[in-house]
């Protein structure tokens, strides 16, 4: 049975005994006590935690000796899935350690393909073998478990080479770092030791715990005491790295660390760290990383919340944290972020579609705690997710997917993102953002937009470059504003930083049309500019018409242009007209201007690997002569059969 850490005390009152409720951690008060920018808990915070954290380590699930639990788990769909996977994989050998030469090459080239698949397959197999052995209890997976565990323990570095520095100081043993991979190696080894116990050789268990202390506990706690740690700097990150690395690290420490004091410090540090992670979401629930990273990052946040809730007997509630309404908005973000059912804006490093069969743990947890729509099945990515939900996952799935009834318009007012959905039989819609240029997985993309016709995206943001060498450079053409449908002034692109932002000035939403005006001048460092606005109107009558207008004034004539971006086939019909085609859907784009004459200049985006496929094209719309005042309007209309 799980160690929930609930201690029920009986006290006498007028001769009667009453059970006290378990103490609840007031997270708002706890955070208010934190040192400025501090992660490691101070004495006052530690005193608050003393009453809610058990003396003993966390037991995430019963050991293999609890045959009722594990035979019951084996009868579930999840159990059968893990047994099938383990049976198919048990004769495979570990794929780590990988040679130093390949590690250094992967680090130098940013090449994930030569390292990452082998690295992750090893840890994925091990966790499946562990659960299978607990269910079968016949020893047939023990050799594979021991071989994989010893192979992992023999690795010089547990991190992915792309996350080491240029000098490979982690590989060289000069420092210890926890990354997205290391935290999983650690939690899987901690799980093996906890669940299999005396099934494992004594020397292996000793080595597991020695290395977990060195690679995880000591490394993590040391970094939480530093303002600018070289290792584990993600503890102050607002991105998915924080929640993913924190959840795996804390799981490992709660399970494997014998010292109550260190477990207390780790729990306190994790709570302090999560205020940074959650600050990365808008107050409106907006996730600038997109739906894929919402699932990955927020899913691990919810998994962290679940294990802390269980460990503290319900005393620590990260599902509410210090702002339950915001958490609910974050949990329901993917549903409201859809342009059309199943179609998303690929802003930043987001994706347009969630792959069929993808991990959906976050979605089920959002259903469980925040009333989000049920999923058609549970597709876990990690064994700990299955342990967290257990057989109760069936309460959060439905045989028939619930219908998606999206509103006519969604406005994320904190980030300035508007999704205006056409109401036609084949809806013609636009998603447009203000945002700022220091978002998670940032692109210089203030003012970017997407034009969607039914299930297809015909124009707008082309998404992210694939993760290869140079993908995260601010100068990557798919990451800079050159590769986005936004203006370029005097050959100057948008600048990077939080202050380079857009601001929505006006909105007008109705059943017939949606429109907005945003100020995007602050995104540029062009001193000659006086004003720069981007306006959008979606006329939902008839087949639909979407217009995007950029208007500017300047103290002196400036070179001004904007761009139509597309991954679709296109034809330049004349100096003002384009026809865009994608899977049989066609949209016409007509360019008009005030103040001067414009030309269309198309060129391929010079990025070989894009996450949305390719090739992508930039059709520049540029004034022929410099102007002190002018505007460019692009009018999109669907071409429907008459």
Automatic annotation (TrEMBL):
Keywords, ordered alphabetically: Signal
Signal sequence, start to end: 1-19
Keyword Cell membrane carried by entry: no
Superkingdom in the source lineage: Bacteria
Protein known as: Heparinase II/III-like protein
Source species: Marinoscillum furvescens DSM 4134
């Amino acid at each position: 049975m799980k160690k929930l850490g609930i201690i029920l005390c009986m006290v006498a009152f007028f001769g009667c005994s009453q059970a006290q409720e378990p103490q609840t951690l007031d997270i708002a008060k706890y955070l208010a006590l934190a040192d400025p920018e501090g992660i490691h808990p101070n004495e006052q915070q530690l005193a608050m935690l003393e009453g809610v954290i058990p003396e003993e380590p966390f037991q995430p699930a019963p050991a293999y000796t609890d045959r009722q639990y594990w035979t019951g788990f084996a009868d579930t769909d999840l159990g059968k899935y893990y047994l099938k996977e383990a049976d198919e994989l048990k004769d495979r050998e570990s794929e780590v350690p990988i040679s130093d030469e390949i590690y250094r090459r992967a680090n130098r080239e940013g090449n994930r393909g030569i390292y990452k698949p082998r690295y992750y397959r090893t840890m994925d197999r091990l966790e499946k073998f562990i659960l299978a052995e607990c269910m079968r209890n016949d020893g047939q997976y023990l050799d594979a478990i021991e071989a994989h565990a010893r192979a992992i323990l023999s690795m010089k570095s547990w991190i992915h080479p792309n996350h080491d520095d240029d000098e490979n100081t982690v590989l060289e043993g000069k420092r210890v770092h926890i990354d997205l991979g290391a935290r999983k190696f650690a939690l899987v080894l901690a799980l093996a030791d906890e669940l299999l116990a005396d099934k494992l050789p004594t020397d292996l268990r000793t080595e597991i715990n020695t290395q977990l202390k060195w690679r995880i506990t000591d490394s993590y706690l040391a970094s939480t005491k530093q303002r600018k740690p070289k290792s584990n700097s993600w503890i102050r990150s607002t991105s998915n790295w924080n929640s993913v690395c924190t959840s795996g690290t804390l799981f490992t420490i709660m399970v494997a660390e014998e010292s109550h004091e260190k477990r207390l410090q780790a729990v306190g540090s994790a709570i302090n760290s999560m205020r940074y992670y959650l600050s990365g979401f808008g107050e409106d629930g907006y996730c600038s990383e997109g739906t894929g990273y919402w699932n990955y990052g927020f899913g691990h946040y919810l998994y962290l919340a679940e294990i802390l809730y269980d460990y503290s007997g319900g005393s620590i509630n990260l599902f509410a944290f210090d702002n339950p309404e915001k958490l609910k908005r974050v949990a329901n973000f993917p549903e409201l972020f859809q342009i059309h059912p199943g179609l998303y804006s690929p802003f930043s490093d987001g994706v347009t579609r969630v792959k069929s069969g993808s991990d959906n743990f976050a979605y089920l947890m959002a259903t469980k705690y925040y009333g989000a729509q049920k999923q058609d099945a549970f597709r876990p990515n990690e064994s700990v997710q299955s342990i967290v939900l257990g057989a109760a996952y069936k309460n959060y799935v439905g045989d028939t997917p619930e219908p998606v009834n999206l509103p006519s318009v969604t406005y994320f007012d904190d980030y300035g993102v508007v999704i205006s959905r056409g109401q036609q039989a084949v809806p013609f819609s636009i998603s447009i953002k203000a945002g700022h240029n220091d978002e998670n997985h940032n692109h210089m993309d203030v003012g970017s937009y997407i034009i969607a016709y039914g299930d297809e995206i015909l124009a707008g943001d082309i998404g992210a470059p694939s993760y290869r060498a140079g993908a995260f450079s601010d100068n990557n053409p798919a990451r800079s504003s050159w590769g986005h449908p936004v203006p370029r002034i005097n050959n100057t692109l948008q600048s990077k930083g939080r202050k380079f932002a857009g601001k929505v000035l006006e909105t007008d939403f109705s059943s017939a049309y949606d429109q907005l005006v945003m100020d995007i001048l602050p995104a540029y460092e062009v001193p000659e500019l006086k004003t720069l606005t981007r306006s959008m109107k979606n006329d939902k009558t008839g087949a639909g018409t979407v217009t995007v207008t950029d208007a500017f004034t300047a103290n002196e004539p400036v070179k001004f242009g904007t761009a139509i971006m597309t991954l679709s086939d296109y034809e330049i019909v004349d100096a003002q007209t384009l026809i865009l085609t994608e899977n049989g859907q066609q949209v016409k784009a007509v360019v008009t201007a005030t103040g001067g004459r414009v030309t269309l200049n198309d060129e391929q985006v010079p990025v070989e690997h894009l996450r949305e496929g390719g090739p992508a094209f930039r059709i520049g719309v540029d004034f022929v002569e410099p102007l002190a005042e002018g505007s460019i309007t692009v009018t999109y209309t669907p071409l429907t059969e008459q």
